[in-house]
Amino acid sequence: MKVQDQFSEKELQPLNSIEQWEDDVLQRYPEGVEPSKAKEEYRNYDNPQRDTVREFYRLNHKYQTYDFVQEKKKEFLQFNRKEMPVWSAMEFLNTLVDDSDPDIDLDQLQHLLQTAEAIRADGHPDWFVLTGFIHDMGKVLCLFGEAQWAVVGDTFPVGCQFSDKIVYPEFFANNPDINDERYNTKYGVYSPNCGLKNVHMSWGHDEYLYHITKDYLPEPALYMIRYHSFYAQHREGAYEHLMDDHDREMFEWVKKFNPYDLYSKSPKPPVVSELKSYYEDLIAKYLPDTIRL
Ligand SMILES: [Fe+2]
Ligand SMILES: [Fe+2]
């Protein structure tokens, strides 16, 4: 039985759209607001959207176990689903339509172009721009029928104690790993400062895209892709004890990337046809003619 066959439709898709998660992250980390103040406001903030997001995290924290991650890697890192040019993969991603409010929300391609264009406007290297453009491509997992909580959401290490700095930590009470003595200590299956290359992260679009691109992009780009949803570290510093010096150096890039991801959303949608040839050239410079999903 495939893992997701165990879940009801409601458990697979607790959110109205996957953008709801990112909208919620933006409320948690609003631009220019002091972290402690933002946190307090986030906790007090109450509306029906929030209940949806809470349910999303309840499921995420319950089901993202060490074994679940190993199973998903086995399932998806064979890349035996589709093979296509990167631009086509982006268009494929864009078939993931947001039915919550089509008039206001930008589609996936527009979010990615805005992120990339903001990076380009600040004069960063072209591989950084390209990273901004493709960083959410792993969300195609949704189109393969994956549960929303196994595609988006904050990521965190599995196989060791869950930090209380992760959003809604109380929901980890339902995760069976907290009763497993292999996984419930500070270091669990890892050793002090072993480096994130040895650490299994919860499964989602970040880890998936990392494996698709790992042979082609400069290392800072790969860190941005792999850890952009790891808020517990890049915003909260909760996993210093697993990081090595190289991770710390590379996380400067992850931190540099995050504001472009969160704060580049402007209501004026980018015009895809005007930008397409620039991004096609960038893709051709760094990535192979086709990628396997
Ligand atoms: Fe993302
Ligand atoms: Fe994003």
Helix content: 40-55%
What order do the SSEs take from the amino end to the carboxyl end, as H and E?
Answer: HHHHHEHHHHHHHHE
Shape: globular
Main sheet: strands, sense, barrel: 2 strands, antiparallel
Q: Mean pLDDT, rounded to whole units?
A: 93
Number of strands: 2
Q: Kindly, what is the distance between the CA atoms of the first and last residues, rounded to a whole number of angstroms? A: 22 Å
Give the bound compounds: fe (ii) ion
- Count of structural domains: 1
What are the defining features of this structure?
293 residues, 47% helix, binds fe (ii) ion, globular, mainly alpha
In words, what does this structure look like?
The protein has 293 residues and is mainly alpha-helical. It has one domain. 47% of the residues lie in helices and 1% in strands. It is built from 13 helices and two strands. The protein has helices at residues 9-12, 19-28, 35-44, 48-63, 66-76, 86-93, 108-121, 126-134, 205-213, 219-227, 231-234, 245-263, 272-286; strands spanning 83-84, 291-292. It has a two-stranded antiparallel ribbon with strand order 1-2. Helix 7 packs antiparallel against helix 8. The radius of gyration is 18 Å and the shape is globular. The model has no long low-confidence stretch (mean pLDDT 93). Bound molecules: fe (ii) ion (2 copies). Keywords: Cytoplasm, Iron, Metal-binding, Oxidoreductase. Its main location: cytoplasm. Pfam families: MIOX. It is found in: Cytoplasm. GO terms for molecular function: inositol oxygenase activity; iron ion binding.
